[in-house]
Amino acid sequence: MSSLSRRTLLRSIAVGGAALAVPGTLTACSSGSSDGDVSNAGKKLAPWPVYVPFSGPKPDLAPTEAGVQAGYTAYPSDLVTAVPDKPGDGSTIRVMSVSFGTPPKPASANKFWTAVEKALGVKIEYTIVSQTDYQKKMATVMAGDAGDLPDIINIFSGFVLPREAQFVQRRAEDLTPFLSGDAVKTYPNLANIPTHAWRDMGRIGGRIYGIPLERPLPGSTLWLNQGFFTGAGMKEGWTSEDFAAVAGKGTSGKKYALGAATGSVFGGAFHSAAHNAPQEWAVDKDGTFLPGYTDERFKASVAYQAQLRKNGSYHPDATSLSQPDLVTLWLNGTVGSMQDGFGAYLPKYLDSKGLFTPAAAIPYSVGGEPGGSVAARRSFGYTILKKAKKERIELLLRVLDYLAAPFGSKEWELVHYGLEGTHFTRAKDGSPEANELGKVENNTNLPLKYLAEGPQVLFVPGLPDAVRALHAWQQKVVPRAIRKASWGLQSRTYTAQGTTLKALMDDAATGIIAGRLPLSELDAAAKKWRTRGGDRMAEEFAEDHAANS
């Protein structure tokens, strides 16, 4: 049995915890347009960068156009070169990004940092901001002088930043001339970023201001302790009635089938999608935006969860557990399941090795209709550049192009694992295996991956069966993924009031599931949500949707 360590928990939170945060938007909070009109309505839209797939090691499991990821059951034996020439000129660049790790050792004592600087041909002054301090730090940066801005800034999509789009439009370089259409081919690894990531990042005033961090289609996922659920009677093609029965049978003594963390509405995303409810917003054929909160299927999912809670299937502290504490309970077997982002699959498999086999749950059916799954925003965030001369922008784009090198390249290995013999050794299957230095000098603590990154693939070192299982799961759930229709679109009201209004609905649903409020309170909350800004958001999203169609 392996023990839980602080490093293990940080790794789990870094990959998966961010997926639980409220998705952000490119929109800003503004009641006027004195500093620019960020809407795309009525604007000439810059073409998205052309997509030129990188020709690297062939995956063992093929991707699909629908969104199933490429899978590698073994680490590529022959790594390719993605960046033939050193991108930098010896100058110093200032960068800033969110972080989910511990602060790194300073550059002078950090061999990983030094190796990356040498490969890039630049010196890096890095401002690293923890997730908990990100909003406060960004507010200071956005209010400061233009000359004090870092050269490269990561805009994390886990929060709605007030007047974000206006700030970007006013202070960041318009990258349209450098990246739109065929122009992106100058930077082959940026051209390897699929169009879906650019679309979910969105335009501002019809222009392209950022570089997206691509993410896979599956979003919030119910992660199971497979043995726990199999032992309780889980079966292929289960119904909502079957799920409730399994959850009830698996709960006994001080073990609970269902775990949840505070703010997750008892893991409500999985259940609302299984009921085929819209994920906050849907759009009909004529372009009208329909709020998920007023959909009867959403109401049914809340009622279903309330019954699961009443049956005793949820951990009793589901409204107060932190995500790190929930991870601990999942790994030690106290809870048989937990909701987290699909991107958390790597620590889910690595941290549970020797304890149990994890599995992503297939949604149950409701009333004879197969359940839907949650589609993620395909852009985890985006990177902007401070306004500068053309030559400086080109230098910064070359640096980001290097950091965006794809899986299977020598550059990807360096940026993700450091130097062989210094930070990692080779496992039997050839995959990098971090040594003690690599566990403290890496791109979690020096979060280069939040500046630029290549398209993500399925790969779990030393666990080829896990990759096969995840690929097969994606083939089943991706066709029924339910997308939030507002991603990549602009709405002033959403940025001004979206976080507050979402909290209104989340609090009502949480209170109902916990048994503190009657189900009728959901309709009352939805009425307040609409009058306080929901209907205005629908109009603004519809207007921007029409402009982008």
Description:
This protein has 549 residues and is an alpha/beta fold. It has two domains: 49-217 and 379-455, D-Maltodextrin-Binding Protein, domain 2 (3-Layer(aba) Sandwich); 220-374 and 481-487, 3-Layer(aba) Sandwich (D-Maltodextrin-Binding Protein, domain 2). It is 36% helix and 11% strand. The chain is built from 18 helices and 14 strands. The protein has helices at 6-16, 111-120, 134-143, 164-171, 176-179, 188-191, 195-201, 226-231, 240-250, 268-274, 296-310, 323-331, 345-351, 390-403, 410-417, 464-477, 492-513, 520-548, and strands at 92-99, 123-130, 152-156, 211-214, 220-225, 281-283, 289-291, 337-341, 358-360, 373-374, 379-385, 424-426, 432-434, 481-482. Strands 2-1-3-11-4 form a five-stranded mixed beta sheet. Strands 8-5-9 form a three-stranded antiparallel beta sheet. Strand 6 (281-283) and strand 7 form a beta hairpin. Helix 1 runs antiparallel to helix 13 (345-351). The model is unreliable at 1-35 (pLDDT under 50).
Keyphrases for this structure?
three-stranded antiparallel beta sheet, 14 strands, five-stranded mixed beta sheet, 549 residues, 36% helix, 2 domains, D-Maltodextrin-Binding Protein, domain 2, alpha/beta
